[in-house]
Give the backbone structure.
Amino acid sequence: GENVGLHLPTLSVQEGDNSIINCAYSNSASDYFIWYKQESGKGPQFIIDIRSNMDKRQGQRVTVLLNKTVKHLSLQIAATQPGDSAVYFCAEKLTSGNTPLVFGKGTRLSVIA
Amino acid sequence: DGGITQSPKYLFRKEGQNVTLSCEQNLNHDAMYWYRQDPGQGLRLIYYSQIVNDFQKGDIAEGYSVSREKKESFPLTVTSAQKNPTAFYLCASSPRGGGRNEKLFFGSGTQLSVL
């Protein structure tokens, strides 16, 4: 089947620096992508989403970039804070079908104070 | 206060026992999902339901069963046929069942362990 994977399983950044979390997807037909944040022992929380007709979308301190040519998705977090420490998942979906979101394995972000 | 409620937070299963995990939502969402998460791993789909009285198997449905008798509720039963049930179980819901952009809303999870 199609897979959603991540380049880096762990990422450590200094507080105040920018973080970049990467995700590779293999289903070229996917047209909707989401980033979730999961803190220890809790359910994932929505961060930001993007449709395939866009290549960039910004939220509060976060930006998602989509490169359909190389099937790559990234999440950028500006001025990383200790509260950003968590596991981040990307997920993909083909919206023309009835299939649910497919999640990647996740990247653990650790912020060093 | 709207949201998704999973209970219990911690659950222990004895050998050969069936256990049921509860998931209730008051968001008026049509679709509900169950995911399994093993330590350091991603989310794997067990079952999902896009409408009341209907549900579909996900990637790892063996050893699990569900029902969707009410829109608000989607309980998951971990049967004795599931030989490795220890995991963190997450329930989620979304406004629509498919074919459109879907943002999932997650509960706080149930940690199931085998005695």
